[in-house]
């Protein structure tokens, strides 16, 4: 089968053996894939948790059809339309654990379905399970114009947040955040963005920040969070190291939690997917939670898709389709 593989000379479409499902695995005939920021690093040879390096089939999000079941796989049957996340997505066939997939709603095509699994799982966990958002609260999403950021704002609104603030350093994308749930959009590269957040919250700060940036905004986040507020760190687009004001952190008694899928067990991931199904799946089927598709590429144009992502001018998801 054809797959997008990282090799000694970089990533390229290559012929590899078709995988065989074992245990609780499902073999998926992939029809569309969503690109994610982590894919850009792995395409350059960087590790993402335990994954990466020479011989790695890249990609982590897909939609397609069940082609074969492992002996212990349950909940789906051959031919079902599904979407999910996991490694080796950029291929004609991939494997997925039966607990790490969703049924693709009948009112979505494969391209639309491929945009959702990572965003839904990541941001329901960050905003609801870990972030504990409650009706009437104020929420700030750092890096809100990414696919997961747009989803985070929508989930916060769905759960009753009174005020949703999104950040983006790009003026065009910042201007479109209100289409996806933002009541206020701020530029996190502007030193005065904290003042805007405090003004919007009556001087108190927000109840919850979901931070995909970290790095240089870490101390500003502390200043923008209310006493007994919460910060959930899901990314490091602003760098992996930075100064941190421990005194302000302690004075505001902020709960600061880091989350990632890279160190989670399959049992933990299954639980996250189950929470999405139980809590917000009706909103997904009703298309109240959806992401814009910025551009669609054919599989043989996958390098161009990555170039488009690395240009950092897109809003929403970039999708690659397979025949």
UniProtKB/TrEMBL annotation:
The keyword NADP applies. Residues 7-320 form the Enoyl reductase (ER) domain. Keywords: NADP. InterPro entries: ADH-like_C, ADH-like_N, ER, GroES-like_sf, NAD(P)-bd_dom_sf, Zinc-ADH_QOR/CCCR. The keyword NADP applies. This is Zinc-binding dehydrogenase. It comes from Bradyrhizobium campsiandrae. The lineage of its organism: Bacteria, Pseudomonadati, Pseudomonadota, Alphaproteobacteria, Hyphomicrobiales.
